[in-house]
Specification:
The chain is an alpha/beta fold and 204 residues long. It contains five helices and six strands. It has a six-stranded parallel β-sheet with strand order 2-1-3-4-5-6, with helices on both faces. α5 links the parallel β5 and β6. The protein is globular. Bound molecules: NADP nicotinamide-adenine-dinucleotide phosphate. NADP nicotinamide-adenine-dinucleotide phosphate binds next to α1. The site of NADP nicotinamide-adenine-dinucleotide phosphate has 24 residues, from α1.
Length: 204
């Protein structure tokens, strides 16, 4: 088994977060679950002050991972500027602030693992905010990796989760879904491995 790590996981009670928390726990890691509804580690990641308050209340961790981020899905002609701002705040800036404010709270050779998604590389109608957010995070990850070494940073970019196909309606016709368990394994690869600056594309 791998060396046990302390992993701070944002969104650990969501669909993806639950799968990631389960596999990390099974592999002997300690998962610290943070979200808005958490009693012990309550945080709203759209507030930088909230993120800092959470970090300052924790001992150093070995890894920080995210399983959060909402973007509006609408046709471009129906999108407003504030729709893009909401998507940028919730998925992009929140994850960047988790990294920027987290650098001194992660061990010297620790890691960050962020979440993006397929729509930046394979767009769909109503997906402009998702494409914007995912592309922004992927650019950030590649650039941040060359500055933060020996700390590491990667992003996970799945197609639709198998378990979310019904909820997604007809948003991604013909996209091969990927099971949450496989997405969770990509987090393991990022957290336990040695790679940095990688975007793990799951499904095509
Ligand atoms: N669904 C798919 O098929 C799919 C495919 C590719 C990528 N993704 C991406 O995967 C990520 C997770 O998706 P999901 O379906 O697992 O979402 P989900 O089930 O809605 O879970 C989201 C989690 O994030 C937490 N959260 C939401 N807003 C927060 C905030 N402001 N501050 C702190 N915590 C917050 C929620 O907990 P609280 O409510 O307690 O805060 C919840 O635990 C998203 O970025 C999504 O775009 C999804």
């Amino acid at each position: 088994m791998p060396n046990p790590q302390r992993v701070l996981l944002f969104g650990a009670r969501g669909k993806l977060g639950t799968a990631v928390a389960q596999v990390l726990t099974e592999r002997g890691h300690t998962v610290i679950a943070a979200s808005r509804s958490s009693v012990e580690h309550r945080v709203d990641i759209t507030s930088g002050q909230d993120i800092t308050r959470l970090y300052e209340g924790l001992e150093e961790v070995d890894a920080i991972a995210t399983a959060t981020g909402h973007v509006p899905y609408k046709f471009l002609s129906d999108m407003s500027g504030s729709d893009y701002e909401i998507g940028f705040q919730d998925k992009v800036l929140a994850q960047i602030e988790i990294v920027r404010r987290g650098l001194q709270h992660v061990s010297a050779r620790g890691s960050f693992t962020l979440i993006t998604g397929i729509f930046s590389r394979s767009p769909v109608p109503m997906g402009t905010a998702a494409a914007m957010a995912n592309g922004a995070i992927e650019g950030f990850v590649r650039a941040a990796a060359i500055e933060i070494a020996p700390q590491r940073i990667n992003a996970i970019s799945p197609t639709v989760f198998t378990e979310s196909v019904a909820a997604a309606g007809g948003l991604c016709p013909g996209f091969p879904p990927v099971p949450l368990a496989a997405v969770a394994e990509a987090y393991v690869r990022s957290i336990e491995g040695a790679q940095t600056g990688q975007i793990y594309e799951l499904g095509q």
